[in-house]
Structures are given as structure tokens and as C-alpha cells.
Amino acid sequence: MKAVLIIHNSAIDSEVTDALSEMGIDRYTKFTNTLGKGGSSPPHFNTPVWPGLNTATMVILEPSKAAQIMQRVRQMRQELGTEGIKAFMWQIEDVT
To answer: What is the mean pLDDT of residues 40-67?
Structure first.
């Protein structure tokens, strides 16, 4: 199994959810109101100086589907530019 963590601007959460749905993925966990600073978009600290929030979406699934998600996020990064989206993938050793 693989874990994919997608961290994205909350403004594009519906696009991320729609992309997962289009891939037949309907099981995930969302971490809302997430603060952070990346390299390709302004910080999202929910302050007057740095407004905005992120959402983190985590999916645990088989390796082939995880690779599809990573490819879709790469595509979204090109399409959305500075809106902010990034994905990380790692191995899951056990699931109960």
C-alpha cells in the first residue's frame, strides 16, 4: 500500500476532490484549516498579512492508483500555477 498526501490551497479543494472522484477514489481523509508555506505559492497563515488556508487530503491505496494520483497532481500544478498544490507519496507497511 502507498500513502499519498496532497497539500493544496483550500480554494481548489473542490478541484482536488473532483479529480479523486474521476479516478474512482472515494475514500480519503481531509485535514482542513491547515497552515503552511511552500516554495511556489505565498504562505497561507490565515492572517491579515498572509491570508488563506490549506487543506491536506490523505489517501491510502494500491501503488498503481497512487501513481495515478501523483501524475494528476503534476498536471494540476501545471494548470493551476501559483494556487498551490503538492503531493507526497510513501510506503505503508501495515493497515488494520
So the answer is: 91
